[in-house]
Design brief:
It is a single chain. With 143 residues, the chain is of the alpha+beta class. The protein has one domain. It has 6 helices and 5 strands, in the order H-H-E-E-E-E-H-H-E-H-H. Strands 1-2-3-4-5 form a 5-stranded antiparallel β-sheet. The longest helix has 19 residues. It is globular. The termini are far apart.
Length: 143
Amino acid sequence: MAKWDPLTFVQFAKEQCPAHVVNVLEDLVKFTVKESDAVSWGRGDETGMVTFRARSDEGLLPLFNLTTDGHIKLFINYLREKEVAREILRDYQLKMESTFLLELDPDIYPHDVLHPVDDLFHTRNQVQKFKHAILGVTARLHQ
């Protein structure tokens, strides 16, 4: 049986993160459980992880993951390696860049890294834009 589920993930996050980060994590965990094609839960004992996976011609691809210590990873470079259609990848990259004011060009962002949630999400609107972007990428991967 997996150690992590939505309840234990949020409980651990509450012990490690400020309230505004927990609110974002809880919202994105619920979104992941409801909207992803497959949810992957980490197996770690001290830090929990949940990954949003979308079905594609390449199989199940991770789009992002969250950790109980308040981090998020965007799988942009992983998708580049999997040779996802250029239009889909470009759409994902542009939406993440505009939502979070990040530079995700492969020369500047050569590896997927964990970003602190409170560095990226400052408003509810950013959470909504992020979820909308993920749904859009997921729909395009299904085509």
